[in-house]
Amino acid sequence: MQPAASYPIGTPGVVWGAAEVAAWRARQVRRRSYADDVLAAIERLRAQLDVEQYGELDYGADRYPLFALRSRDWRDARPVALVTGGVHGYETSGVHGALRFAGHHAADYAGRVNLLIAPCVSPWGYERIHRWNPDALDPNRSFRADSPAPESAALLQLVAPLRERVLVHIDLHETTDSDESEFRPALAARDGKPFTPGTIPDGFYLVDDSAAPQPAFQQAIIAAVAAVTHIAPADADGTIIGSPVVAPGVIEYALEELGLCAGITAARYKTTTEVYPDSPRATPEQCNAAQVAAVRAAIDYALAHPATPAG
């Protein structure tokens, strides 16, 4: 684990400027293909779902079309279920869990709910297995008006006309060992702050909205996922990643205030999943299956309780 002082970019205690961001970006290497892994999968889904291009990222030599999947039988009178993956591109099961849900289970909801699925919000990060975009910005802290992250701005524009009609939004993420070995030290270095080591939860957990918690909804998802993979226990101090555990496998964040993807709509039901792919107790297959189980449980609960008050 690297202390902040040894991070290879920048000067300890000094916020990065353009030169440091450029030096960091030059170190990032393409490790997998968005076209092969994601666009090809989306193309295969055209027989089942409508495919909509909602933007394109222009990063010099790298251009990435952004696609969403919609229910073919969309009706404006129905509620909307929003599924997002790959906001942090390196979080693999978020992308492939969203695609698997679309391919294997979208038909189960025909005539009941409008599905809108954005499976890979951050393709540059997907290819480089990184949390940030090429400007060293975290898309999942950038969902706000005048967003500096084009990935976030494009998704906000896609969702804006539906913001008040979304019933449930589930945003698919992972917590990995590299959060502690690379991404948190990089964040500290970028912001000119000391790096304080933390812990990585061993297991699945959820992030509810502290402004309008829905504990029964969160527990319905936990129960479904527990049949697929293990749920993260609290640390000795009763927290997960430093936040108090409010129920088994559940913590809370101020989603909209923090600029998080799960806060971009007025949905009654919101959650962020966190799978732990580096656990010796979980396989990639289990991680993808856990994401799918979480999506299905979230939508099923929301459809069964459309008028449950917040709190």
Structural descriptors:
Peptidase_M14, two-stranded antiparallel ribbon, 311 residues, alpha/beta, 8 helices, zinc ion binding, 31% helix, Peptidase, globular, Aminopeptidase
Per CATH, the architecture is 3-Layer(aba) Sandwich
Overall geometry: globular
Beta-strand content bin: 15-25%
Q: Number of domains in the coordinates?
A: 1
Return residue spans where pLDDT drops below 50 for at least 5 consecutive residues.
1-5
What's the total number of strands?
A: 10
Taking Cα atoms only, what radius of gyration do you get, to the nearest Å? 19 Å
Report the CATH topology name. Answer: Aminopeptidase
Judged by helices, strands and strand pairing, the structural class is alpha/beta
Protein name: Peptidase
GO molecular function: metallocarboxypeptidase activity; zinc ion binding
Organism: Cognatiluteimonas weifangensis
InterPro entries: Peptidase_M14
Question: How would you sum up this structure, described in words?
Answer:
With 311 residues, this protein is of the alpha/beta class. It has one domain: Aminopeptidase (3-Layer(aba) Sandwich). 31% of the residues lie in helices and 19% in strands. It has eight helices and ten strands. It has an eight-stranded mixed beta sheet with strand order 1-2-4-3-5-10-6-9, with helices on both faces. The chain has a two-stranded antiparallel sheet with strand order 7-8. Helix 3 links the parallel strand 3 and strand 4. Residues 30-306 form the Peptidase M14 domain. GO terms for molecular function: metallocarboxypeptidase activity; zinc ion binding. This is Peptidase.
